[in-house]
Amino acid sequence: MNKTFTYKVPKENCMPKHLFELFCDLRNYLSGVEAKGIEEEVKQLLLSDTEIESVIETAFLVSLKKEEGKFPQLRLLIPKKIFNFDRGNRLVTFKKDITFDAINLTKLSPTTNDLNYALLLGKGESGLLIDCMLAVSDKDNFDITNPMNNVQPLDGLTIRIDGPGNIRFHYKSYTFELKEGVIEEKSNLKEIPFVSDWYEHLYQLITPKVKEKYLEGFPSGTNPTDMQINVHETLPQFINLVWEYILATTIKLKKGGAYTILPAETNPDEYKDAIKIKYPALDINIVDKIVDYWVACLNAKNKSDDKVLLLKCIEAKTKLFNQVNALVNLSQADGCVVLDRNLNFIGFGGFIKAIANEKSKCLKMSPGGFDKDKEVQVFQQEEVQVLELGGARHQSAYSLCDQVKDALLFTVSQDGEIKVFTHDKNKGCVCMCKAQGTSLSYEW
After folding, report:
1. For burial by CB atoms within 10 Å, which of 7, 50, 191, 416 has the most?
2. The pLDDT of residue 260 is above 90
3. Fold identical between 16-185 and 198-435?
């Protein structure tokens, strides 16, 4: 059996029906991989195929119409038949049935144009209903003593409206987007190999710091178990959450930005021929703040009745996000924010001096399915010229990574597109991969 999902859609002029057909193909594929019949897979969702197709068509129509001078930007959730509301806070339940149709969805779109919220769809005697508004996730909605409760994706099929003619769906580990008549699979940031390697580096850096700081609160001679520290499975996800929050918040500002990640513990003067940092700066240390927050959560969780520990947890969370938000605000200045691989802040207003040769080649990576055996996303590779990468920001990103071999560079465009650049030592060239626009920790 083919364990990698492949799909066929028209190269252009795609319509909502093509997105729906792709969802059906994906579901059929997953039913085979997970060794269960298609009937069982179909029954998992609350809505029937006909109803799901209608939701996608309606979402597309609504995306084309402005409400209060703006094109809508919102999420819809088609839940599983058994849905765990602990994964999304029920904020507002509508006492009177609201019929799901283009008129009501358009009228409600301004109430949920912040992608931290989603409208939950349900069924009534008269047909499809908008049941309630959910809080997807936000730094202020974190489960204080267990941050990992906030990084679980909502159960079911999520559909996102993101501007005129731009809709996408997320189902299990897959995201597909219809934009400007073209359907593309969107890569999860953490699945990109060189981003995943960086996250692993941060995990190896942070884990001993967490253990050391946590042990300071134990009597001499005691040694808490790894289960008590609870680092191994959840900390890597939290690292991903924090970095995705930075990128997602940059997207919300709608001006774009760029983040340059230089080699670890580097002296910026080593790269002065490649990048000029107009405003060197200090004091932002995200790794230390992650450690403080994680340890505070562990202490508060183990002694949940101790209000002092709970307050320390809230304080640590506030300090972490104060620094994270400061970093995002600095990205709005001309130039890029500059850090090293240990997330030490170096400065902002970085201007890349290296100039790319127009005839240079770059390896463009794009998602090509998910290999269930290896549990990794599969990437297709295409060699392109530097001029095909985009504007000056993207060409500068290529130039820096071509000159600084162990650098990473994240660019965020005004419309929310993220591109990641690095130099691949094995391939001997600069690689670029587009990532989906993130929204906090959610993988779509």
Report:
1. 416
2. yes
3. yes
Residue 351 carries which DSSP code?
A: E
Instruction: Take residue 249 and report the two structure tokens written for it.
Output: 């918040």
What is the spatial distance between Cα 365 and Cα 386, in angstroms, rounded to a whole number?
14
Task: Supply the pTM of this predicted model.
Answer: 0.79
Residue ranges of the domains in the chain?
16-185, 198-435
pLDDT of 313 above 60? yes
CATH architecture of 198-435: 3-Layer(aba) Sandwich (3.40)
Contact 284, 345 (CB under 8 A): yes
DSSP per residue, 1-60: ---B------SSS--HHHHHHHHHHHHHHHHHHTT--HHHHHHTBSS-HHHHHHHHHHHH
Alpha-carbon torsion (339, 344, 348, 353), positive or negative: negative
C-alpha to C-alpha distance for 358 and 402, rounded to whole angstroms: 13
- Structure-derived torsion over alpha carbons of residues 172, 119, 324, 192, reported in degrees to the nearest 10: 20
Three-state secondary-structure class, residue 317:
helix
> What was the pLDDT predicted at 6?
73
If one looks up domain 16-185 in CATH, what number appears? 3.40.1700
